[in-house]
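Subject: Protein entry, chain in single-letter code together with its fold tokens

Area: Proteins and the way their chains fold up in space.

Attached in line: The record itself begins immediately under this heading.
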Amino acid sequence: MTGGEKLPRTFFARSTLAIARELIGMHLVHDDGHAVRAGRIVETEAYLGPRDLAAHSSRGRTARTEVMFGPAGQAYVYFIYGFWNCLNVVTGAAGVPHAVLVRALEPLEGITDRTWGPGLLCRALHIDRRLNGVDLTGDVLWLERAPARAPPVRIARSTRIGVDYAGEWARRRWRFFDRASAYVSTAPARGRARRSAAPAGAGN
């Protein structure tokens, strides 16, 4: 299921909005040395700090946000609500704290838990703060292109989720998702139930 072309660092050192859109359909892979877990990205959100008040980096350069300042192609993993880890991909030019939050995955390999939310997917892929700052072009946690035979994605966009506090920035349509996927965090649960009940080999 894995083994596709890894995304090079040059992929990440570009426009954050373009990357957030292009990550839809890419594969996220974690090899923890004991097991390989992989999923197809179906939902992302772009954060363009420090001006973007929804971004963590809007509060300045701190120990928590240091990794967001680059270089591009690193993982920014943060911990919230005393329970959830969330994975971001650091993007753009060095010194500019931009990142893309990975919000949902379709399971591909080695995943048995739910993946339709940023905290859920990190738990399913065993991603936690120990991976904060890891090189996403390496051999532990990486992104790769989908195989040529993969179905095309049907990209839609909307405002980001849970950022009402950010004023005018909350109205930016910086959330991207595959509207054909039942694993998008806002998709009806019945669609995921049908996918879970499908026989082996069905789907992608």
Notes: DSSP finds four helices and eight strands in the chain.
